[in-house]
Design a protein that fits this description.
It is a single chain. It contains 2 helices and 5 strands. By secondary structure, the chain is an alpha+beta fold. The protein has a 5-stranded antiparallel beta sheet with strand order 1-2-3-4-5, with helices on one face. Helix 1 runs parallel beside helix 2. The longest helix has 45 residues, at 73-117. The radius of gyration is 30 Å and the shape is rod-shaped. The N and C termini lie far apart (123 Å).
Amino acid sequence: MFKLKKKDLKEDAKYVKAIITTYSEKQHIKKLVSPISNTYFIIDDKNQIYICIEDGKVTLSNHVFLYKKQFNLSFTDALKKLVKEQMEKEMQLLKKSLFKNETNLLSKIHNISISHKKSNVISHNFKRVSNL
């Protein structure tokens, strides 16, 4: 049988993939998805860099330049997958931290309730003194 040879990426596609990979791995960078259009956004407000990954098209812009290019659908799907996987990792970390905080809260409240369970009640021992 014959084997299909994989084409090497063109230089601009290599840069686009490297940029998206780098930005998607940074946790402080906003990553958004539009579920209906299946469009992914990577937003770096600090450096004013905005990336949009659509089906078959990638758009990168900053405050001066705009780069817009059509790519194969398989290439943009691979880019979306990179972003999606990183978003999933970040959501799992968030989920762990949220539930950890909830568990800590419950533990603290439980400890407070135990400490108040055995409250000390002051009872007075009054004796009646008779007047002569």
